[in-house]
Amino acid sequence: MYSRFDITVGSLLYRDDYRDYYLAKGWRGSLDWKMNSALNAKVAFNDERQSGVSRNTNYSIFPESYDCRVNPAINDGYLRSVDLSLNLDTRKFLDTGMSMRSDEGSNYWVCKADVETSSPRFLNSAFSFDRFHLEVMRHQMAFASGYLNVWAASGTAIGKLPVQRMFEIQSAYGGYSEGETLETLAVRRLLTTTSIVVAVDHDFANSLFRWSNIPLVRDAWFNVRLFAHGAAADGYSPMAEVGFGLVNILPFIRTNFAWCVAGACRGFAWTIGTAMGI
Predict the structure, then answer these.
(1) What is the longest distance spanned by two Cα atoms in the chain?
(2) Strand spans (E) along the chain
(3) How far apart are the C-alpha atoms of 52 and 39, rounded to whole Å?
(4) Residue 142 belongs to what H/E stretch?
(5) CA distance linking residue 257 with residue 146, whole number of Å
(6) Which residues contact 83 (CB under 8 A, 6 or more apart)?
(7) Residues 6 or more apart in contact with residue 166 via CB below 8 angstroms
(8) Mean pLDDT of 58-78
């Protein structure tokens, strides 16, 4: 979700590291089969001794009155698992000079199905579970010279998932958000054994300003987007939020204004992020 650069900046400036860490010693191997330009299959094997780690530093560039967050405990043990995944990606990409950006002017699908199994009997693992995850995103050119994104992800498991393999519902990070986060989520993130998250986002480009036909306003350079996010997770009440955003108000920068309408979220959130496509 958040890049190493994002995490590094947050940690160095104000001692806020979004990630949880644990130690993994062992190896991983995988085989990939590229069926065609859009479809890819992968089988992977993990053999790792996983254990919790302590906090190593309290350093930050600017002095703070609080310590860095302690890593939460995990389920220690040997995790041996087989992971089967199937990926469909029909995007076309544009070279911006700094990175490859998906072509928002074309329709596409991005889908991933993943099954992971771990067994003491067959794999000599310390854990016994079957983990299922499905993610689907549709990018569709829509009315008003804009586009519609519909994204959904769902996960569940049979058996007892270790903490480090639970599903996450992501939140904003220090006023910054990327991807399909719940902007108003009241906690850093939710860990659960069963979850579903849905995000619907319509970007109107600058057509709303053109329709107004108001001098200066009709020539606005940035886009307007409307969005709705929802999530449900085992052990939590359903969550939902709605809002709007301004895209490219500065080059490749967007800002979001979101309101919580149900569940474990705060009333209002204002965040910023990048507008570089998915």
Answers:
(1) 72
(2) 22-34, 39-52, 77-89, 93-95, 100-102, 108-118, 129-141, 147-159, 167-170, 189-192, 195-203, 223-233, 239-250, 253-262, 268-274
(3) 36
(4) none
(5) 19
(6) 30, 42, 43, 44, 45, 46, 114, 115, 116
(7) 191, 192, 193
(8) 82
Tokens at residue 149, please? Answer: 């994104």
By CB atoms closer than 10 A (0-12, 13-18, 19+), residue 57 is exposed
Cα-based distances in Å from 255 to 10, 136, 198, 218: 18, 24, 20, 20
pLDDT digits over 197-212, tens only?
999 999 887 776 666 6
Q: Residue 56: which pLDDT band, with cuts at 50, 70 and 90?
A: confident
* Exposure class string for 14-50: b at 16+ Cβ within 10 A, else e: ebbbbebebeeeeeeeeeeeeeeeeebeeebebbbeb
d(CA 149, CA 104): 10
List Cβ neighbours of 253 (8 Å cut-off, separation of 6 or more). Answer: 272, 273, 274, 275
Q: Which amino acid is present at 251?
A: P
Q: Which residue has the higher pLDDT, 47 or 248?
A: 47
**Residue written as token pair 């995990």:** 74
What are the pLDDT digits (tens) for 152-196? Answer: 999 999 999 999 999 999 888 878 887 778 999 877 778 899 999
Q: What is the pLDDT of residue 277?
A: 46
The pLDDT of residue 99 is 72
Q: Residues with Cβ < 8 Å from 84, sequence gap 6 or more?
A: 41, 42, 43, 114, 115, 116
Closest CA to 272 of 240, 249, 241: 249
* pTM of the predicted protein model: 0.87
